[in-house]
Amino acid sequence: MTGFLLRRLALLVLTAFCLTMVVFYLTNLPPQLEKIAKFEAGARISDDEVTSWLNNHGYGRPFLARYGEWLGVVPGWTGTDTQGGAMGYCITKGVDPAAAPHYCGVLQGDWGYSSVFKQPVSSILSTRLGLTGILMFWVMVVMVPTSLLMGVLAGMREGSRLDRTLSTVAITTTSTPEYVSGVVLIVLFASSTVGLSPHLFDWGWISDRTLFKGSASSAMDGITFQNFTLPVITIALYGIGYIARMTRASMAEVMTAQYIRTARLKGLSFREVVMRHALRNALIAPFTVIMLQFPWLLNGVVITETLFNYKGFGWTLVQAAGNNDVPLLLGCSVVAVFVVLVTQLLSDVGYAFLNPRIRIG
After folding, report:
1. For residues 304 and 231, is the Cβ–Cβ distance under 8 A?
2. Going from the N-terminus, what domains does the chain have, and what CATH number goes with each?
3. pTM as predicted
4. HEC string for 196-258
5. Pick from 307, 316, 303, 313: nearest CA to 339
6. Lowest CB count within 10 Å: 60, 90, 96, 145, which one?
7. Residue 96, SS3 per DSSP
8. pLDDT digits over 227-259, tens only?
9. Strand partners, 79
10. How far apart are CA 357 and CA 361, in angstroms?
């Protein structure tokens, strides 16, 4: 197991290095750099002025040098401004240039400064990731038990009416994207003029005009059942169908295995066969799928957070991309890469524990 972990960790580091290099290259293409120059120096500057600004601010150096500088393994560039003052990658306003560090990249904890939010990228990401982490937690609380229960019940009785009903529900939820289900849920439960809320209010079942809130912006200050239910359900619905279908297929395959027939012939009840013999083996494949939901949730919340105005990681990613905020966009990309690789590592390790044949191999 130790060698397995070491190989996986080495592959994780190598993959992270390659992916961050690709992301850094794509966000530093010449058209992108030209946008940065015009955003900082003025939209009407000439092409020669753009080139001069980029050279004076360190963007004219080779790609690998700038990537190493951003990563924190190459010393930051230094120069002088129009007034003869010191400027550079690691020099900040109000700080003595002589006291500035030589290395100030991601490895040193310096993720840059957001040009849109006017804050350090690290502080922005920590706040937004915390909000998204809360959303992801409640989504997993709703999604995982529901999908596993649906998949196990459907797979236990393959071909039955219950199986066909649950499979239809799973396919419907999986084929409905978040921007459709979110709008439908808002119309049904968060509108004061249409849907169920006006009728529930007239009947005296609810005291507010709407059963749920159509915006989750107030959830950033305090989570309530009203302001957090719809975004959680919107994200969970899509994942429930996918995990349920995978669990159903795995459970149906296990129920036809030879050792299950042997257990039934020994006189064990159907409940004992399912709980003691079938369930653990049936959950091996869904476990991998569940672990892979974390990177999907981190990047898939973009639509939901934008729709419900919940300013988490997905909303921040949209703002960074739409406003050409390269430092923040790079920070979001690094976080997404890290989450994908770590969850993949945990998935491999968990699969090795659940499946003894992996350990023997």
Report:
1. yes
2. 121-360 (1.10.3720.10)
3. 0.80
4. CHHHHHHCCCCCCCCCCCCCCHHHHCCCCHHHHHHHHHHHHHHHHHHHHHHHHHHHHHHHCCH
5. 313
6. 96
7. coil
8. 899 999 998 888 888 888 888 888 888 877 787
9. 87
10. 6
